[in-house]
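histidine kinase
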Amino acid sequence: MKLKHIVLKWVRRFRTMVRYRLLVLTSVPIIITLLALIALTMYWTVTYTWQNALMNVRADLAVAHHSMELLQKEQRMRLMSLSSSYDFQTLLRTDEAKLSDWVSTQTSNYELDFVVLHPASALSEFSKVNRRLLLKGKEQTFFQVLDGQALENLNPNLPVNAEIPLIKEREFESRGLISRSLIPIFNEKNQLQWIVDGGILLNNSTLLVDRIRDLVYAADTLPLGSIGTVTLFMDDLRVSTNVPLDSEARFGRAIGTRVSDEVKRQVLIAGENWVGRAFVYDDWYVSSYEPLHDHDGNVIGMLYTGYLEWPLLKTFLTNIIELGIGIVIVLLLSGVIVYRGSRDLFLPIERIHNVVKAVQIGLDRRIGSLDLFKNHELQILGQQFDSMLDQLHQRNEDIKKASLELEDKVQIRTRSLHEKTEELEQHIKLLNQAKIKLVASEKLAALGELTAGIAHEINNPTAVILGNVELLQLELGDDTQRVKEELDAIHEQIDRIRNITRSLLQYSRQGGVQDEITWHHVNLIVEESLTLVRSGTKSYDVKVEAQLDAKCCIEANRHQLLQVLINLQMNGVHAMDDKGLLKVKTEDWIDQSGKVLGAVVRVTDHGCGISKENLKRIFNPFFTTRRSGTGLGLSVSQGIISEIGGEIEVQSELGKGSTFSIYLREKATSNNELMLDVEAY
């Protein structure tokens, strides 16, 4: 708590006291300048250091590459020295039968891992590139990967020396990476007679990589604590390296470990050099890789050089910390100087500030003498401020008197205006109600007259058609069987016309004389509708499942509610193409506070569903997607439910089915119809 109190105290001082704010204002430019210098210094240092590190590691890789070329050249010169030696030339001219055995004994004398003499007849054992160069009389040196049998053919000891245990994989690598040289020997007729084949095995060649490392990383060329490393890879496997198994303890060699996937993709697969920061076995190194190619140009391995990154970062961070400490010291010294130098200036300003705060809270204070020179700017400012406070005090007294008089007048006018406003709002409200009722009445009257006229005009010719069809059936007698299908089609269409006119008449009567509304238990009406639907769908492959959990009673017209339920259930049956499962569920309608508002009836089908476009139009009159539908069922149902204060909601997913929910209030109301008509208008 003490620490928090001290922090809050100083925060308040910096926010409220001039001396500290001025200290901040004078220090901020210095701090920003120093921080900018730090940022620029760090950016330049990081950029230069990192670019320099990458340039160094590129140069190291170039030196290692050149060293490998020198070693291969030295290897080729040894073979050429062997082929031009006195003993070789003597046996070549006098006893060629012993030449091959003698050559195989010269391996250690010429510091090679294998030396083999092939006759010209063995030329076909070499690749096309090798054959072409040998026939031209050109020496060649190249890298190559050989399996165990090929290694044994060159030297029986090579397979054992090449074997590498794979760390963390519990396997052994039996292939070998070799540096191989071929020297062609021609006879007096300038015909290829012999091929001198020799080279070194690069697997487990620790002396070789150490020699290259000593050439690349001379003493005192790396940051203190860093180590330079060189590695030869066969594919992605380290076959010869001085990368330690533990970079901190620096023991062992990481032979038998693999390169990272990122380096593998760029160097081995893409055939490009890699220069950058890479994770080498157990630590981060500033690294560079280049691919090794065989005689056919295929990438068979990599050459790597790199050194530990952390000592470089440590040196860099040490420099940054030293720079930061120096900057902090400069900031502290400059802050002390600014504070001490401006202290005499702050005290009069703080006194003026305290007087201002006292005046703000209603105290009658003045600045008075500031113990400064007579012509000091702050002394003059204080005198002017006191004069201004005197004038302000007098004006405040005058304003108070005027405000009291104005307040009385405003209250009188406000009271009168408020009464007029309330009266006007009441008139507007009554006018809107009358307008809404008039529009609703006119719409219903016009719709009723139109639909009644349409129904009458349709029913008269329909009755004539029906009578003539029945007379025709009577006259034909037994001959009606010949046209039975046509007559049945006529009867079916007549029934359809009657259903349409009946729906029109029923739709036109909405808002007319209200049918009797009584208390009913919703489950009983639902059970009755289910009985009628089941009897009407016996010929269909429809299963009706009911879950009636509603406990409350509602006010409704029984016949109209029954009509709505049957209409929704039959719509669900038709949506499922007269087969499937139809679910009907009832439950209490409960609001968020737990109060029972009424009952909810949900009708769920597993049919074709309704698209989002059609979902907004299904309650519009005469809208239907069925060829045999009238488009009035849902519109009539919505009107019936709205008349008693209820609601119909629909949720549908195309291809999966629909759920129609009927919300029935416990106490029927008569205002919903008016509100719905207002919204439609």
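thats it. Residues 517-665 form a domain with the Heat Shock Protein 90 fold (CATH 3.30.565.10). The longest helix spans residues 377-476. bye
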